[in-house]
Q: What sequence folds into this?
């Protein structure tokens, strides 16, 4: 196979944490449910409905299987954002009379943080745990934060920016011992790392299909039945999904989601090993060609498909402009609407100047070894070119301590 | 975000990249911005005895717009008097490169860099002049 030529209009995709392409095998299973098998899965009186209902049931089994749950515990939603909203608001509203305290962490996805903020406005207390330099929470902080008013602990499984894996089993045990519900946003984890809601004592888990080679627009919330977790629904209507999420299920999306789980469960082991090799190859290749690069987040406890690297003295957006033939993402301020550098990197204690120089490189199912070598070549050429343009690089080479300069912040 | 041809050209083929000896009497150096804000520009001018900018060099840490803005001003200020150079406005830079609104601060920084380099040169040649003004 000859190496593919990538261009600005046909770039190499290295942003698998943003989304993943739908696997062609997934698309294939979905196709009939748009056209000939178009029935409403909630129609109980004819073949069309039964056919769709059966397909949804199989999909539900497949989603349950990959996390070690029972299919009765799977609630389909529009995606992880809705699942996170439903889990946190649903628990808060149901148990809020007795327990009005929630614990989460500062590096959570915005949909968890913003949901918690909205509950604070409704009078709930929220503790935002800090993370250590490696991006992981301190379990002693968690233990110390739990009170008799705590209803829920919500800690993500895998961080979307830095790919670090939180100690789920340990968190689950602490929560169970203290009789507090444990919710985890596992959008970046399902299909990437083995998960088991039983051994990890997880009570609620949010899942997204499009992060695991399924279609956009569908996800799920695992809601434990024993001991029973109860939620106030966000969406009222016909009482579908055990009354927790009304609305007609999108059969094709649900079927695709199920197939994505089936494939991931089968292929996860070999895929993780392959990506672990690529991750190593990419980091070593970059490190050999570019001095002074730093991995953000724990080096061991991270998913194999993620590398988040700061290229000191080169601003992230400036770098991305030079590698338009690579589809990557940056923690630089300039790429965000807020003009603030990544809050996740800041929470790790990464200095602002280094946060501005970070790239998130996401690898996945369709990444090849040639792609890795191409990325190493392109990134190292461009970083080294931009360092030649960088006054900070000059100063560092001349031995000037950048912190000794009185910068005019603007 | 689609950038203009002019901006991309300056980013890909930056003009007048380099550094001059800051300690020389005929060199003015401006260093503006901050690493924590994501952009730092260093702009240097070499000034002839009759007050004309003979040469200009820059180095910039920042996004493509910041690099292009500083590259552009090095071209513009060469051959100008100090006063003429000081009259360059950020709006001229933003217009030439068709900077999107979120990138206007890059052009402001480039304008500040010119002023800082000119001030530095004036300070060097006649340290009392500024104090008297």
A:
């Amino acid at each position: 196979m000859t190496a593919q030529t990538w261009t600005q209009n046909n770039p190499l995709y290295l942003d698998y944490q943003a989304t993943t392409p739908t696997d062609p095998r997934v698309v294939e299973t979905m196709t009939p449910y748009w056209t000939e098998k178009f029935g409403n899965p909630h129609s109980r009186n004819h073949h069309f409905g039964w056919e769709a209902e059966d397909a949804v049931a199989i999909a539900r089994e497949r989603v349950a299987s990959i996390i070690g749950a029972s299919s009765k515990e799977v609630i389909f939603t529009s995606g992880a954002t809705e699942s996170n909203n439903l889990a946190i608001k649903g628990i808060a509203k149901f148990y809020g009379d007795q327990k009005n305290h929630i614990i989460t962490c500062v590096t959570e996805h915005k949909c968890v943080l913003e949901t918690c903020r909205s509950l604070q406005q409704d009078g709930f207390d929220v503790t935002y745990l800090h993370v250590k330099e490696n991006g992981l929470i301190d379990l002693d902080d968690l233990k110390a934060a739990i009170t008799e008013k705590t209803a829920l602990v919500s800690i993500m499984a895998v961080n979307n920016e830095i790919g670090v894996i939180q100690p789920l089993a340990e968190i689950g045990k602490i929560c169970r011992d203290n009789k507090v519900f444990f919710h985890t946003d596992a959008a970046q984890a399902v299909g990437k790392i083995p998960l088991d809601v039983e051994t990890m004592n997880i009570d609620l888990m949010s899942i997204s299909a499009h992060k695991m080679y399924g279609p956009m627009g569908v996800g799920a919330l695992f809601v434990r039945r024993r001991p029973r977790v109860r939620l106030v629904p966000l969406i009222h209507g016909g009482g579908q999904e055990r009354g927790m999420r009304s609305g007609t299920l999108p059969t094709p999306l649900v079927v695709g989601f199920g197939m994505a789980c089936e494939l991931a469960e089968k292929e996860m082991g070999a895929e993780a090993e392959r990506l672990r090799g690529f991750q190593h190859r990419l980091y070593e290749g970059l490190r050999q060609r570019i001095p002074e690069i730093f991995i953000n987040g724990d080096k061991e406890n991270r998913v194999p498909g993620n590398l988040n690297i700061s290229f000191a003295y080169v601003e992230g957006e400036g770098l991305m402009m030079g590698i338009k033939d690579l589809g990557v993402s940056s923690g630089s301020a300039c790429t965000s609407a807020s003009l603030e550098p990544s809050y996740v990197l800041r929470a790790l204690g990464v200095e602002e100047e280094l946060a501005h120089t970070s790239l998130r490189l996401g690898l996945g199912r369709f990444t090849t070894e040639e792609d890795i070598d191409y990325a190493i070549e392109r990134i190292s050429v461009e970083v080294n070119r931009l360092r030649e343009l960088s006054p900070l690089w000059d100063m560092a080479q001349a031995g000037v301590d950048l912190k000794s300069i009185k910068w005019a912040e603007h | 975000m689609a950038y203009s041809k002019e901006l991309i050209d300056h980013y890909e083929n930056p003009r007048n990249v380099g550094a001059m000896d800051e300690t020389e009497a005929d060199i003015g150096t401006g260093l503006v911005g901050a690493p924590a804000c994501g952009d730092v520009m260093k702009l240097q001018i070499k000034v002839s005895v009759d007050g004309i900018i003979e040469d200009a060099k820059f180095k910039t840490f920042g996004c493509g717009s910041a690099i292009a803005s500083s590259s552009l001003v090095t071209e513009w200020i060469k051959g100008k008097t100090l006063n003429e150079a000081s009259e360059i406005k950020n709006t001229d830079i933003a217009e030439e490169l068709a900077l999107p609104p979120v990138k206007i601060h890059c052009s402001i920084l480039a304008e500040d860099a010119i002023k800082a380099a000119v001030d530095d040169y004036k300070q060097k040649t006649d340290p009392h002049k500024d104090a008297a003004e």
User: Anything to note?
Assistant: Chain A touches chain B through 29 residues (CB under 8 Å). The first strand of chain A starts at residue 12 and ends at 13.
